Amino acid sequence: MSTTKERRPAIEGWFTGGDGAVRLLGTRCASCGTPYFPRNELACRNPGCTGPKDGSELEEHALSGRGRVWSYTDSRYKPPPPYMSPDPFRPYTVAAVELEAERMVVLGQVVPGVGVDDLAVGMEVELTEGVLYEDDEAEYTVWMWRPVK
C-alpha cells in the first residue's frame, strides 16, 4: 500500500512552489525599487531612498527565478538546531547565487546529485523545489538551485 505524503514548505511564506514556477518571495521598496530577501517589513534600508521611512512603501515581490553562481561549497556535517535535516544526515552542496534582475545574492541548497565538481562560478542556475526533510505526516520543502541545461 503506497501513500503520498502532503508537501509543505519548511519555511512558510518564503517561496512559491507546487505546480507553478518556484519563486522566492521578498519585498521591494515602491519608491526606489530596492529588493529584500527575506522579507523586509519595517522600512527601506537604502540610504539613498527618498520615500517614506515608515515601511508603508514596501510591497510583496516575487524575485527572479534564475541567476548565476557567485560562490559554492559543500556541507559535510549536520547543522545544529533549529535546522532540520534527514536522519541519517546526507551531505549536500550550497550555492550563493546572484539573481539576474535584483543583483542580490541568495543562498540555497543545490539539488541532490549536483556536487561542487559540477558547479562553476558564473554558471547559470534556476530555482526548483526540493525536499529538506520528512516526518510521518509530510515532506517539508525548500527552494533549491539546479544548473540550467
Secondary structure elements and their pairing?
Blueprint: E1 6-9, E2 15-16, E3 23-29, E4 35-36, E5 58-62, E6 66-75, E7 92-99, E8 105-110, E9 124-134, E10 138-147
Parallel strand pairs: 1-10, 8-10
Antiparallel strand pairs: 2-3, 3-4, 3-5, 6-7, 6-9, 7-8, 9-10
Folded structure, characterized:
The protein has 149 residues and is mainly beta. It has one domain. It has strands spanning 6-9, 15-16, 23-29, 35-36, 58-62, 66-75, 92-99, 105-110, 124-134, 138-147. A five-stranded mixed beta barrel has the order 6-7-8-10-9. Strands 2, 3, 4 and 5 form a four-stranded antiparallel sheet that branches.
Please indicate the count of domains: 1
Compute the number of helices: 0
Q: Percent range for helical residues?
A: under 10%
* Total E-strand runs: 10
Distance between the termini: 36 Å
Given as residue ranges, the uncertain stretches (5+ residues, pLDDT < 50) are none
User: What is the radius of gyration?
Assistant: 17 Å
Structural class: mainly beta
What average pLDDT do the residues reach?
89
β-sheet strand percentage:
35-45%
The coarse silhouette is: globular
Helix-strand topology string: EEEEEEEEEE
Can you list the strand order of the major beta sheet?
6-7-8-10-9
Sheet bearing the most strands, described?
5 strands, mixed, barrel
